[in-house]
Design a protein that fits this description.
This protein has about 60 residues and is α+β, with helices and mostly antiparallel strands. Helices cover about 20% and strands about 30% of the residues. It has one domain.
């Protein structure tokens, strides 16, 4: 079974390396990036759409 999505961690890889991996792997895999600081994941299924921001919902009162 092949993966259909890869999530990169920008804490461990430079932006240039992440973009290089995305280019090498091609368009059959969806990509997301976990930023170095923050509790979210950023991704888009298409260069023509704004994509998703997935975050942890913290209910503060």
């Amino acid at each position: 079974m092949k993966p259909d999505e890869i999530i990169f961690c920008s804490n461990h890889l430079s932006n240039n390396k992440i973009i290089g991996f995305m280019s090498d792997l091609g368009g059959s895999i969806e990509f997301k990036i976990a930023p170095e600081e923050g509790a979210g994941i950023i991704g888009s299924h298409s260069k023509n759409s704004s994509g998703d921001l997935i975050t942890i919902d913290v209910g503060l009162k």
